[in-house]
Design goal:
By secondary structure, the protein is mostly helical. Helix content is 47%, strand content 8%. It is globular and about 65 Å long. The relative contact order is 0.13. The structure holds fe (ii) ion (FE2) (2 copies).
Length: 474
């Protein structure tokens, strides 16, 4: 399972033994590089960046760190090792040998799952394209670029599956993944959150905390797939994904840290006074949190979904930690709670669990995402400031599913349209909030220096010091 770096496309799938596939991917490769040039990090092509590159799929020592120019990054195809005698672990095919080729009758659903996942990867690179121009430090700039090159590699991971297992329509989907553009009204990315802007670094940290975590849960569910190549691909992607969420959690934590330090030193609490000191007031951080949490809620799809049931029953997409769950893995007779608006209230109704698998994954996600918010609250507590961040109710500000038809506040109360209009600036970042945060975004490129609104991290990357020259501009 070692990775062959002597080939044009690094891989551990013995690409050289399949000349047709190799040629198809080598034709896609320059298209990818063109896309990176057009839509990747703005103005970065000549930078030497201290990046990690996957060199093995062994969990110990899989990564190598060195300076790389991003257009020369060795994007490749890495699958976790095959598990001997792996089975389909859920649904109607439970107990059968896991599939090494695509089952014909599930071909289009499987392709759709792969394309939907694949589409998010270049989308996030596009969303983050201009952030390098306003980096708060070299350390942060390097982390941004690390996330970007790995999202590029995740696109490679999905395109490999499309080319290898779906023939001509797979190749067409691979091309289309480089043609859609985040936020483009004519040819947008598939999922809503991936067409939103990521205009500032607070948004970037929130995105990597909340939206990359959606990625984690989707990948975990696909890593259970009965289609073994998909499962193995997603397992390795998860290894890389952990750092993206670290960038988010530590980034938001450092913003909070800095704000609280300034509040305490200057004995101010009023948001206007906090802003006058050049840091981001806590209520604004809460509104950004509300926004990113709610758009990420929508990524899990409709609360009740017959597609989700089909993906499960046919063995294509499992639940989070499917094999650790102690039920029959068929779910034909189970129910699961979902929310509905009845009259003026949110009420819980019970749906067949098979149809509520999106809701279940959303709930698993919420449990996971609350942990980091509690760690952020500890930072605030330590500074003795009476303020708590909370995640909004899962029905707040939804755009997908039946809950999107009602106005629901962060506490989960149904409110009138006029109340929503009057109060939405308390709940979501207003134009003024965004303008204020944008006004803080400068560009700090001296090693070891940080923008005023964010605290330095406690330690650097890969045991390097915080003031290491993580990016050389040349
Ligand atoms: Fe990704
Ligand atoms: Fe990610």
């Amino acid at each position: 399972m070692s990775i062959n770096y002597s080939e044009k496309i690094p891989n551990n799938v013995d690409l050289a033994s399949d000349r047709t596939l190799q040629r198809a991917l080598e034709r896609w490769q320059p298209e990818f590089i063109n896309w990176w040039g057009d839509m990747g990090p703005e103005g970065s092509n000549s930078f030497d960046v201290y990046l990690r590159t996957a060199i093995s799929v062994d969990p110990k020592g899989w990564a190598h760190f060195d300076y790389v120019r991003m257009p020369d990054y060795r994007w490749g195809i890495f699958l976790n090792p095959a598990e001997a005698e792996r089975k389909v672990n859920f649904g109607a095919h439970k107990g059968e040998a896991a599939w090494q080729e695509v089952p014909g009758e599930y071909r289009s659903n499987l392709r759709r799952l792969i394309v939907t996942q694949g589409d998010t990867e270049p989308a996030s690179v596009e969303q983050q394209r201009y952030l390098g121009l306003t980096c708060p430090s070299l350390y942060d700039l390097r982390n941004l670029f690390q996330v970007n090159v790995e999202e590029g590699r995740h696109l490679w991971a999905m395109v490999y599956l499309l080319h290898r297992y779906f023939g001509r329509d797979g190749r067409e989907e691979g091309d289309a993944l480089l043609e859609r553009r985040s936020g483009d009204p004519d040819n947008p990315r598939i999922l809503g959150a991936f067409n939103e802007k990521t205009p500032d670094w607070l948004s970037f940290y929130m995105f990597t905390y909340f939206t990359d975590r959606d990625g984690k849960f989707q990948l975990c569910a696909l890593a259970e797939s009965g289609f073994d190549p998909l499962a193995r691909t997603c397992r390795f992607m998860l290894t890389e994904e952990a750092h993206h969420m670290f960038v988010g959690e530590s980034g938001v934590g450092r913003v909070i840290q800095r704000t609280c330090e300034v509040m305490r030193q200057n004995k101010v609490e009023d948001p206007e006074q906090v802003r006058a000191l050049g840091v981001i007031d806590l209520p604004t951080i809460q509104r950004y949190l509300n926004f990113h949490f709610s758009v990420t809620m929508d990524l899990f799809g409709a609360d009740v979904s017959s597609n989700a049931a089909t993906f499960y029953t046919t063995g294509l997409k499992g639940r989070y930690e499917e094999t650790k769950l102690g039920d029959d893995h068929l779910l034909n007779s189970n129910t699961y709670p979902v929310l509905q608006v009845q009259g003026e209230k949110l009420v819980t109704v019970y749906e067949p669990e098979l149809n509520a698998l999106n809701e279940r994954l959303r709930d698993d996600y919420i449990k996971d995402s609350i942990g980091g918010v509690e760690r952020w609250n500890k930072i605030i507590d330590k500074q003795g400031i009476p303020f708590r961040l909370t995640v909004p109710h899962k029905a707040f500000n939804r755009r997908i599913g039946p809950l999107s038809e009602s106005r629901i506040n962060p506490l989960g109360e149904v409110v009138s349209d006029s109340e929503w209009q009057a109060r939405q600036d308390e709940w979501l970042p207003s134009a003024a909030d965004r303008a204020y945060v944008a006004s803080l975004m400068g560009r700090v490129t001296t090693p070891g220096q940080f923008a005023n609104w964010v605290a330095p991290p406690p330690r650097g990357i890969n045991n390097q010091p915080v003031d290491f020259e993580y990016v050389r501009f040349n």
